[in-house]
Amino acid sequence: MSAPDLLRTVLYTVNNFLKEEKYKAALAVLKGFRNGAVYGAKIRAPHALVMTFLFRNGSLNDKMRAIAKATYTHSRNLACFVFTYKGLQALQEKLQGKSLQSHSFLAACVGGWLVFGENNNINSQINMYLLSRILFALARLAVEKGYIPQPKKDPFPLFATLVWGTVLWLFETYPHTLQPSLQSSMNYLYNDSNVWHDISDFLVYNKQRTPK
Which of 85, 93, 132, 185 is the most exposed place for a label (fewest CB within 10 A)? Predict the structure, then answer.
């Protein structure tokens, strides 16, 4: 058998295997791991690139290593979480013979504890990102279920007012309570813009404050 024929045979066998219904749950777990790894890399790589070159000091090699490490950590964690979540969901459904709403909550709780429970910069950013989305979703759900009345006016302007008022108050008064990346962004915008010596660091580049 020639190499092309062998390749066609292998692809035919694999494709037939992927169509087997009895293996669907297990294969979905593996596909979830793959999608988690790819999505994590796609999300983290550009973010790490921008934030590292904007705010991190050091050589080019140091910066590239930091970008690679952040991308790998995000990709690995998301892949492991999806693998754990989908695996536990499938296991619960198999044991109880049907799918329940509690299955997703319990599976995600276990996955969150195992994968995103370590307190580091990557996990902190991901968890806070999710928290903001959860609060929005719960507010919408409360209105949908009738627990709170439908606002007569768009509440978004009030929301924006409170968010920006609170975060700038914290930054000016208790900056140590904010996440390091947010502190860096705030310093660049509000503190470093108070410092310049000539036209070069007024328009061309940023001259950071000298630490006290």
Answer: 132
Tokens of 89: 């969901």
CA 127 to chain centre: 7
The CB density around residue 88, as the number of other CB atoms within 10 Å, is 19
Cα–Cα distance measured from residue 4 to residue 199, given in angstroms and rounded to the nearest whole number: 66
CA 133 to chain centre: 11
The string of pLDDT tens digits covering residues 135-155 is 999 999 999 999 999 999 999
User: CA separation (Å) from 173 to 104, 167, 170, 178?
Assistant: 40, 10, 5, 11
pTM value is 0.80
DSSP summary character for residue 73:
H
For 59, the token pair is 């050589």
Task: Quickly list DSSP for 114-143.
Answer: HHS-S-SHHHHHHHHHHHHHHHHHHHHHHH
